[in-house]
Amino acid sequence: MAISNTPTRLRPPRNCFMRLLHGWDRLDRLLDALQPLASLLARLYVAQVFFASGLTKLRDWDITLSLFADEYHVPLLSPAVAAAMGTAGELVLPVLLVLGLGGRFAALGLSVVNAVAVISLSEIAPAALQQHVT
Questions:
Q1: Are 72 and 84 in contact (CB under 8 A)?
Q2: Maximum distance among all alpha carbons in the chain?
Q3: 5, 49, 53, 96: which has the fewest C-beta neighbours closer than 10 Å?
Q4: Residue range 21-79, pLDDT digits in tens
């Protein structure tokens, strides 16, 4: 059996790099195509959490006022004003967020609502903490 002295032909490293680059480009295009859907799903989730909280406050307004008077000590606002503003924010801002109307304004407003809730409630109940974590 004769042994050939011709070198075996290996793929140059450039082809491997080009395939990797091509794969990365395809992944990038796929993720770009999925970005609007992921953004919508995130907005829907956040809006649902805040909107449900606003509906809960609206269902029994007397308890809401009592909570704002006794539990949620919002600085600089009377309990009635804080309850009205918090409930309005939790009902209006999520709708704006989902519809994409003033999305940054709505997101900032919901962040303020969340920050005031955390500051005002010194001891978060386990059930409320569970909702904030999950």
A1: no
A2: 99
A3: 5
A4: 888 999 999 999 999 999 999 999 999 999 999 999 999 999 999 988 888 888 888 99
Tell me phi and psi for residue 72, to 5 degrees. -90, 105
Q: What is the mean pLDDT of the chain?
A: 84
DSSP secondary structure letter of residue 30: H
SS3 111: helix
Angle at 45 between CA 42 and CA 48, to 5 degrees: 145
Domain extents in the chain = 40-133
| Beta-carbon count within 10 A of 93 CB | 25
pLDDT given at position 120: 77
Query: To 10 degrees, what angle do helices 61-70 and 79-99 make?
Result: 120
Q: Kindly state the tokens that stand for 15.
A: 């082809």
